[in-house]
Write a structure and sequence with these properties.
Layout lengths: L2 H32 L1 H4 L5 H7 L7 H4 L3 H9 L8 H14 L6 H14 L4 H6 L3 H22 L4 H29 L10 H9 L3 H7 L5 H11 L7 H16 L5 H18 L11 H24 L3
Helix pairs in contact: 1-5, 1-6, 1-9, 1-10, 1-11, 6-7, 7-9, 10-11, 10-14, 10-16, 14-15, 15-16
Length: about 325
């Protein structure tokens, strides 16, 4: 497969996965912010820090303005991670690899492109109809995932698509969890209250799995177990790394050369830190260091992937 095509397929799924994660986080924050009696004063700053440039001086001015924050996250193309920009980039990558994706995948990307570019979306946001804007978009990200899964042939292109998808998902899980830890400060007092973690679990579509799987009241430990090493949770770091390992090995095959070995060593170091970690060792002092460490390793691995397969730095 041409590196140009592999690059387009890789980034098509990365952008669509990022769009899905941002929509779920924004919708969760929107719903939770309505329940002020339970959640107190919730600003949009944690979401803005993930999906906008944190150095922008005007973030403080809009962090309590829901409508302005939604427009920044969904429609403001000066924000390189706004939904409109992500979908536009995904469509351009889909167009560049149109002969290597199914008609159904292209049509679904195109449907989402036309939906996010509807002129009335800004008016709806200004009319306090943020959920009416986000819910159809979330449904389309689900449709995209399902259509891709049931129509794409399981060849090299499929492997590159999933490599991009799970790198992006792994990074999102780490970043979402980091922001939640900043809000709760990971204090021992929180271990008896799942409410502190509901925001994160809903953002990762993991609340239902949590209440059905974990029975003890040690919520700090349980939530970290779920988001880090629960192999049955599709948004856990461990699950994503297992899928990355699977598709990376399929792409590389059995050919032996130094660049392949270096890429596998880089990934192996990252995977080992998660696979052989001692969850009991994580506390308010060690958990930020651990997350920074694995995020840095994941960014390094991603850089090696794009240099190795797509020939750019």
């Amino acid at each position: 497969m041409l590196s140009r095509i592999a690059d387009s397929l890789f980034w098509l799924n990365r952008y669509m996965e990022r769009a899905d994660g941002m929509l779920r986080l924004a919708a969760t924050h929107y719903i939770f912010s309505l329940d002020k009696d339970v959640n107190g004063t919730m600003t949009w700053m944690p979401v803005l820090k993930i999906f906008t440039d944190p150095d922008e001086g005007n973030l403080n001015a809009i962090e309590n303005n829901t409508e302005e924050c939604l427009k920044r996250l969904l429609l403001d193309t000066t924000n390189t991670n706004c939904l409109k920009t992500l979908v536009n980039k995904a469509r351009e990558n889909a167009r560049g690899a149109q002969d290597h994706i199914t008609k159904e995948v292209w049509e679904e990307v195109n449907q989402m492109y036309h939906l996010i570019n509807q002129p009335e979306l800004q008016q709806k946001i200004d009319s306090f109809l943020g959920l009416e804007v986000m819910e159809p978009l979330i449904k389309h990200t689900v449709l995209y995932a399902g259509i891709t899964d049931i129509t794409m042939p399981r060849g090299t292109g499929w492997c590159f698509m999933n490599l991009g998808k799970y790198i992006e998902r792994c990074l999102q899980t780490i970043e979402f969890t980091e922001r939640q830890l900043e809000l709760t400060h990971f204090t021992e007092a929180d271990t008896n209250d799942l409410l502190e973690w509901k925001y994160l679990l809903f953002s990762l579509s993991g609340y239902e799995l949590h209440v059905k799987t974990y029975r003890s009241s040690n919520y700090n430990y349980n939530v970290l177990h779920q988001v880090l090493i629960n192999e049955n949770f599709p948004h856990s770091v461990m699950y994503s790394l297992q899928r990355i390992e699977h598709y990376l090995n399929k792409i590389l095959g059995n050919h032996i050369y130094e660049e392949r070995a270096a890429l596998l060593r880089c990934f192996g170091r990252l995977f080992s830190k998660v696979r052989y970690m001692e969850l009991d060792s994580l506390n308010k002092d060690t958990v930020p260091v651990f997350f920074d460490d694995i995020k840095a390793d994941l960014v390094e691995f991603n850089q090696k992937v794009v240099q190795h397969f797509f020939s750019y730095s």
